[in-house]
Design brief:
Blueprint lengths: L25 H12 L14 E4 L13 E5 L2 E9 L53 E6 L11 E6 L2 E5 L1 H15 L5 E7 L1 H4 L1 H11 L4 E7 L8 H11 L8 H4 L9 H11 L4 E7 L28 H14 L5 E5 L11 H4 L1 E2 L2 E2 H8 L8 E2 L6
Parallel strand pairs: 3-4, 3-7, 7-8, 8-9, 9-10, 10-13
Antiparallel strand pairs: 1-2, 2-4, 5-6, 11-12
Helix pairs in contact: 2-4, 4-7, 7-8
Amino acid sequence: MPDATDPGHMTNSRLPSGRPRRRRPLAISLVLAALLAVPTACTPAPPALEWETVAAPDDCRCADGSPFSFWERRADETRVVLFLNGGGVCWDARSCAFTSTDTPGESEFYDWNLSGTNPENRNGMFDTTRSDNPFAEYSFLYVSSCTGDAHLGSVSQAYSPELTVEHNGYVNGTAALDYLAEQYPDATEVVVVGKTAGSVAAPLYGGLVADLLPDAKVTVFGGQSGAWPDNPDFNTDVLDTAWGAYGAMPDWAVAGLAVRDWGVPGFWTQAGLHHPDLVLARFDYAYDPHAAVEITDWERGDSPSLEPVPGFDELAVIDANEAAIEAAGVPLHSYTAPGDDHGLHEFDAFYDTEVGGVRLTDWLAALVGDDPPDDVRCEQCAP
């Protein structure tokens, strides 16, 4: 919050006329301070975020074949956030079933349509009234996954005679990209923000944005997928066979890699090598138990448990993935927070998170500025 100053704080020095300077009573000073803190016509309060629904083309659809759309907040047209919401993932008849639990269109594994998705209830980075929100003045495109494929899929998949799933995430996501390029042709800065499963594809979408808007500075901030593995079976069975992602990608995204070698950590490497000017960054809680939902050791034909995996060391995998990306010659800025929290982007944690004296919001402001910050990593990382 902005620092408050006391306009009534005056010294006992003399005025130029020689008369003694008098101290205002404290009550009057507090009233004046309160009045100065109230926005006026000259200093309007920052506007709250308001969304408009954008209908996507007819070839865009959710997992159950229902229509797909995304949301827009139009503000500064030279600075745009492309937000890739999570929405969960699935890859077989059990995990992809169209069965709702508490919210329509959502199962315990993934969102299979958008009936339960409402960006109106978001806080955190979507609270554009806060002066410490580095994205308060940006335009936003909010793209939520409803296809169970982390914005990567491009196949109609029959998992059983009764269940056909439209893994159409890449078609949906690139339709939003086309809209961004058409509606914001003069954008000088685009920030691709990925949340949980949405952050899996974030570096690839960053590369695609740079293809479409070559004069814009493109920053990628992926949150909470740093521990996704590079597992040959997962790469083959899920990314390729179940989701059809490998064959849908542009050439640069798969260049030099066979299907079994095209894993999630490599998405960062491929994007960074294709566009060396991309600013790539990730955020992870060191021991987020929910991150283990999608990163169990992959066994052919098995769906993962929805419980934390005993003995799984998320931080070790996060560190190993980052080391592999940077060993390939791609800089990756990172912020690793301690503990086992999960929510970030639309929660107070977006503002409250501080590690080693560095607030996450300050780190992000530097990231999108001209001098990207040093890595931030917890010293005592255990919950």
